[in-house]
Write the structure tokens for this entry.
Amino acid sequence: MIYRHRGFFTEELAPVDFEILDTAGQEDKTEEKMRWADAFIIMYSIADRCSFDEVMRLKFLCSRATSKRSHEPAILIVGNKRDLEYDRIVEYDEGEELARSLGCAFLEVSVRESYDEVYGAFEKLMSEYRVRKRTGSSTMTQKFSLRKKNSVSKMDLDNCPPRPRERSTSFVTPMGLLNRKFEHSLMDNLSDHEGGE
């Protein structure tokens, strides 16, 4: 099922239209559905160890489905049902550590109790998407690569294949998959705005 939502975020110059593709319980052709996505939210329940154990497999599927792109997709791992603290099976530190080891952003929310937390998850995903699109790596990767000297040489940069002209941009998330589309002119205007400051 596809849901549509228009978001207004402080860092954007115009509203952002999302198409959210929910793939929960739809194992057939999941990878095909993921190919058009530029970002993913992988959601698990903090009260369900099995859903947490699926995160690594889903991250692999996201990476494999988008492997021919010039940059990794933005991926946000979200622990849901924070309101069920008394039923917690997966500790916060476990989720955070898994996300870090997979090079993903991480957040815990209660979809049931807080619209603001859900909104914050989309905002965090958009921020991660912008960083990956601009630099080709995640904010998580950048934090850890600061410790390395000259991890990417100029020669490596020269050998990178050119990036194709952008089509509309989309986000997809398994278990709450989202798709974001906006026009080329918005990105051009945003780039011009950022470059002019």
User: Anything to note?
Assistant: Residues 140-194 have pLDDT under 50 and may be disordered. Strands lie at 2-7, 16-21, 39-45, 74-80, 105-108, 177-181. The two ends are 41 Å apart (CA to CA).
